[in-house]
Amino acid sequence: MRPLIAIDWGTSSLRGARLGTTGQVLESREFSRGILTVPPGQFEAVFHEHFGDWMQEEGALCLISGMAGSRQGWQEAPYCPCPAGFAELGQHLLWLQAERIALVPGLSCMGQDALNTPDVMRGEEVQIFGALQLAERDSATLVLPGTHSKWVQVHRGRVTHFQTFMTGEVYALLSQHSILGKTLDLNGVFDEAAFVQGVDQSQTAGSVLNKLFAVRTLGLFVRMSETALPSYLSGLLIGEELRTQTVNANSAPVILIGSNALTQRYTLALQHLGIACQSRGAEATWAGLFALASAC
C-alpha cells in the first residue's frame, strides 16, 4: 500500500490526514481554507502550502474529496452516477497529476418522480463507504445530517439511491432571517423535552407550513419559553425529514455520520420514534479514502 494523503476539502474548511499502511492516522491538519477562500487558479498553491511536505514521501498518493471537485473548486470532477461502489468511484477519479493526486468525483442519482429530478453529493460518498467499512457492513440506511442532510441507501457495497433535505439551511434561515427569529433565544441550551415535542408534532396530520407558524404563536402566548423554542423548531424540522422516510424499526441500525451535536439530535429523534441507530464522526472520511485507495 502506497503512503496515502487523505484530503477533505469542503466549502468552509480544509482537512488532511497522513495515513499509515493499515489506515491509521499518523498525523492530521485542519485549516480555515475552504474552497470559497481560494482565489481562482490558486488551489494547487494552497494545497502545496499546507501539505507539500507530506507529498515529499516516496510513492505518496493523494486523494481529495469534497467541494474541491466542484465547479467552484480546483477542477470540476464529473459526478459518478448511481448505483456506485468503490469500483465505479475508482474509474471516475479525476487525476490532477497522473497516479499521484486525484479528485474523488462525488455521486449523482435520479429521482423517482415525474421530473426524474437529479440529486448530488460531494464528500459524503467517502464518509458513507468509510462508515460501512468501520461497521463491517455492506448494506445499510445512512443519514448524514448537516446544512443539506442526506439519506442514503446502500446495498451490497453500492449506493443505490439517496435524497437531500435542506433541513439545516432552512433552520438557519427561519431562526435568523424570518419573523420566527423574533421570538427565539438562540443563546439558550438545548432543550431535549421541547425538541421531542417538535418531533411529535411533525408526525401529526397537517401542513408543516402551518406547524412552522405555530413556533411564533407558541411564543406569543407564552406556551413555550424563548429559550425552548429553538429546540422545538429543530425537532419540528428534523421530524419532518424523518416523517418522509420508511425505516423498519426491526431492521439493522441506521448509521449516522456527522458532528456530535447533530448526530445526538438525530439519535434522540430516531430512538424516540423507535428506530435504532449508531454514529460515526470524522474517522469515516479517512476510512473511506483509505478503502478507496486500497481498491484502486
Distance between the termini: 11 Å
How many β-strand stretches? Answer: 14
Strand order of the largest sheet: 3-2-1-4-7-6
Tally of separate helices: 9
How large a portion of the residues is in β-strands, by DSSP E?
A: 15-25%
The main β sheet shows up as: 6 strands, mixed
**Rg of Cα set:** 20 Å
Please trace the helix and strand order, writing H or E for each element.
EEEHEEHEEEEHEEEHHHHEHEH
Structural class: alpha/beta
Task: Estimate percent helicity.
Answer: 25-40%
Unreliable residue runs: none
Shape: globular
On the 0 to 100 scale, the average pLDDT is 95
Description of the structure:
By secondary structure, the protein is of the alpha/beta class. The chain has helices spanning 43-51, 86-91, 124-135, 167-177, 192-202, 208-220, 229-243, 260-272, 283-295, and strands at 4-9, 14-19, 25-31, 61-66, 80-81, 94-97, 101-103, 107-110, 118-121, 140-144, 149-155, 158-165, 254-257, 277-280. α6 packs antiparallel against α7 (229-243) and α7 (229-243) crosses α8 (260-272). The longest helix has 15 residues, at 229-243. The mean pLDDT is 95.
Name a few traits of the molecule.
alpha/beta; 296 residues; 35% helix; five-stranded mixed β-sheet
Compact overview of the structure:
This protein has 296 residues and is α/β, with parallel strands linked by helices. It has 9 helices and 14 strands.
What is the topology?
Layout: E1 4-9, E2 14-19, E3 25-31, H1 43-51, E4 61-66, E5 80-81, H2 86-91, E6 94-97, E7 101-103, E8 107-110, E9 118-121, H3 124-135, E10 140-144, E11 149-155, E12 158-165, H4 167-177, H5 192-202, H6 208-220, H7 229-243, E13 254-257, H8 260-272, E14 277-280, H9 283-295
Parallel strand pairs: 1-4, 4-7, 5-8, 10-13, 13-14
Antiparallel strand pairs: 1-2, 2-3, 6-7, 8-9, 10-11, 11-12
Helix pairs in contact: 3-9, 4-7, 5-7, 5-8, 6-7, 7-8
